[in-house]
Specification:
The structure is a homotrimer.
Chain A (H helix, E strand, L loop, with lengths): L2 E2 H8 L2 E3 L5 E2 L1 E2 L9 E4 L16 E5 L11 E5 L2 H18 L3 E2 L4 E2 L10 E2 L4 E2 L4 E2 L4 E2 L4 E2 L4 E2 L4 E2 L4 E2 L4 E2 L4 E2 L4 E2 L6 E3 L5 E3 L5 E4 L4 E2 L4 E2 L6 E4 L4 E2 L4 E2 L4 E2 L4 E2 L4 E2 L4 E2 L4 E2 L4 E2 L4 E2 L4 E2 L4 E2 L9 E3 L4 E2 H11 L2 H20 L1
Parallel strand pairs in A: 4-5, 5-6, 6-7, 8-10, 9-11, 10-13, 11-14, 12-15, 13-16, 14-17, 15-18, 16-19, 17-20, 18-23, 19-24, 20-25, 23-26, 24-27, 25-28, 26-29, 27-30, 28-31, 29-32, 30-33, 31-34, 32-35, 33-36, 34-37, 36-38
Antiparallel strand pairs in A: 1-3, 2-7, 21-22, 38-39
Chain lengths: 346, 346, 346
């Protein structure tokens, strides 16, 4: 990628101050810039850096007034922060869309189809009767089992494994190492304490705009579907067990685990390393702090919980303070005992 | 897969009520059924659904009496639940055994052999001197290092990595993303606080009937073997460190980690996100609740533990209750102090 | 690999006692030895095993005095433990360096280069403009995105995924299933509670002598770099979020998660399943016990912390003891109350 100051200014409806032909090839923070880099200045705290930065172009607000000479070419815009975010998004889209075509050594099973602008990297294995929409990007070494469906504009990064029958919506992003549709963890013991596998013949549905982090796992349902609703974002190594359902726009941080058949509401936010037991209901807008352990239904919408076992935030804080007060209580009791003992003697 | 009501009734020693030629191609819960689906009714709680279901065939108990018209074809059997489970298992076996042959782009190293009904998906890499039994199914993009052994009827799903020298028994199932035999985490510091790698030259043994979840890891031993005994079931993202041994038929839920050289008994059950320190012994039949943290030997067979640090269930429950009693105790002490102070004044 | 007792003695500057032509092909603990195995005896606790071992060769200290007949051939050296460690390292290096050349079905993009003694296993996908040093070993099914750099003597095991722009130093080891450079978890909500992706256009830098465990993840920075400094060792399933920096020679056990933008000092040691919140500073030489949850800056060098929320070791231990004292305190208060009540009556 290579852009001139003029091209950037035109795209952002801004004006160039300096050499309109200055070229940038990448993006850096203003304090870490080097030749060929594009930076921005919005927060006044960072103003001193603009006089020292080695970045070739800096995007600044229209009302920025330089107090010393600046070597970088400036692009002046209405809102430097918003303009920079716009460029970042453009850059990410550019990177994503630059891949197209079916690479060497790709195997596509019979009855499978794909739409326009398809990219399949090397060593991709696509099973039978797979339906892939338009502008889908499948990176190298991905496995897509039989009967899967993938909607338009979805990106599947290198090495993702989709078991058979997985249904993926539009504009979904799945990161490397994620496994979607492996068997749920279901076993029935016999009289000798040996466990027999309960067949897991359901599937996984990821709706539109879902993003799945690296090495996360979403297991297929025993019967029916494990469902991750529209707009849900799962961080790395999140584990979603069989028959779980996660409501729209819920966001879950890394290494959290959700046990089988639990239903989670919309717009929830869970911190990292949270654990939730099976067959529970979590209401809409619930927030769980990192490392929270949930063993009961949480039915109050919008409540915040912490601790293991989980408590509402207020109770948790009080509990924490109380448990640190014991030493002091012990002293007070000892004093009372001493006082009464001495009094008794008299 | 396509079956008629008659074929199903014959297989289950049941009788058809309705059109014997009704065809089903998949399985669904009675409340979620649609045309072409097979469902069952066993729990009376679900009886109302049989009058509404769109499933084409429903398996019911012989003694089921319809109180309204039913559109689905019925298959009557002695025990609807057991019959359905039997069909599920058949279906899973059918899916599993339908794959056979060596796909395109498979590389098999010299000295390696495999038995009858072998399946190897695309882009499978098999090293040298690998011995693979009969009816083994290796899905795409699996890596099998030199000198590995794999017993009869074992299934290895897409993208599993088996480091060299791994020994896998019969009827084992390993899910996508699992890594078996990576180096144990062993380092020795020098005088400059740099860590030098302790070579990990042992291996991993998974005995018969083991199932390993997606993205789980079992590390090779420093010397000797890390051993997962017959019938053990590990859920997704379980971590088993070097030189660990897990006893027969122990079941471990997702995201649990077991540190180096720890020995775990038979028939144990561990919840999710449990952590166990290194060089410990856990007795047979021990149960650990989710998020339990174990730092000491647990030598009492059949005991249940919870909490971090772990406590026996009874102690844990009491501890929890006690820590919630502090606020009340503080009030009682304050009252005593006030009482005595006032008394003292008189 | 096959060595005679004489070859081993020569390499270790030791002397053979027994048949100088005794052959070994592998290494075992003295208590688990069998024909063809090499073992060592250093710890006197294991002396009884030398009279029973089936290992063909045993390395012993020069001052070892046999009290009974021994069937194994002995190799006497100055320090049996150090000699054995030296052999293990040699063996590991031998295994590692025995792979060389570009295997079948490897795709290398334009502008990419590699040095002498390069090994690339089957189905390796290397993007454009990738720079690979000398003696680098890339196992099967690895993905290396565009513009990555890999230093001399680095080993990348089967199935590792390196997103574009990742920079890896010399003598680094990355285990199977690790994902380096996936997008950081960054989203901005809009007024409808939908989350829009914040582009992640930075990269990951792993410096020299880093080792990354199986299925670990290190996310790319939003802008700039996520940096893992020289000599850091990460165990399996460790999660490192965007813009984190981990100081030299810090060692982190399995399933630990570090949230975005946190800076960790040098020579720290973290146990397993530790969680650290975002935007924090952890001082040099800090130790965190397993399952510790850190939500605040830890600025005191060399301090040990435990618990969730984390406390200094001394405080944690006292807190634990105090919380177990409540039952006893309750009894003492009840006695005081009873005593005063009875006294009052009089």
């Amino acid at each position: 990628m290579e852009f001139t100051a003029e091209q950037i200014a035109t795209y952002l409806s801004g004006t160039v101050e300096g050499n309109t032909n200055t070229i940038v090839t990448n993006i850096a923070r203003i304090e870490e810039g080097s030749t060929g880099m594009l930076s921005f200045l919005s927060n006044p705290k960072y103003t001193p850096y603009i006089y020292e930065t080695k970045s070739s172009i800096v995007i600044v607000n229209n009302d920025f007034v330089a107090e010393k000479p600046i070597t970088a070419t400036l692009v002046r815009v209405e809102d430097a922060y918003a303009s920079f975010a716009k460029l970042l998004t453009l850059y990410q889209q550019y990177l994503q869309n630059s891949k197209e075509g079916v690479s060497e050594y790709v195997v596509i099973g019979k009855g499978s189809t794909y739409g326009a602008h398809f990219f399949a990297g090397e060593f991709v294995s696509i099973g039978e009767n797979v339906k892939i929409g338009e502008n889908v990007k499948i990176y190298p070494q991905v496995y897509i089992g039989d009967n899967c469906q993938i909607g338009d504009n979805t990106v599947v990064y290198a090495g993702v494994k989709l078991y058979s029958d997985t249904q993926i919506g539009k504009s979904v992003i799945i990161h490397s190492g994620a496994v979607i549709g492996a068997d749920g963890f279901g076993f029935a013991p016999n009289s000798e304490n040996e466990y027999h596998k309960v067949p897991q013949i359901g599937n996984v549905i990821l709706e539109d705009y879902v993003e799945i982090g690296a090495n996360a796992t979403v297991d297929r349902a025993t019967i029916g579907s494990t469902i991750v609703r529209r707009g849900v974002k799962l961080d790395n190594m999140v584990h979603v067990a069989h028959n779980v359902e996660i409501g729209e726009n819920t966001v879950i941080a890394a290494q959290t685990g959700i046990s089988g058949s639990t239903k989670i509401g919309r717009n929830c936010m869970f911190g990292g390393q949270v654990g939730i037991a099976g067959h529970l209901h979590i209401a809409d807008n619930v927030k769980l702090g990192a490392q929270t352990g949930v063993g009961v239904n949480l039915r109050k919408e919008g409540e915040i919980y912490l601790g293991s076992p989980s408590k509402p935030l207020k109770d948790y804080k009080r509990w924490l303070i109380e448990t640190h007060r014991i030493e002091q209580l012990t002293k007070r009791i000892a004093e009372l005992e001493k006082f009464l003992k001495e009094k008794d003697k008299k």
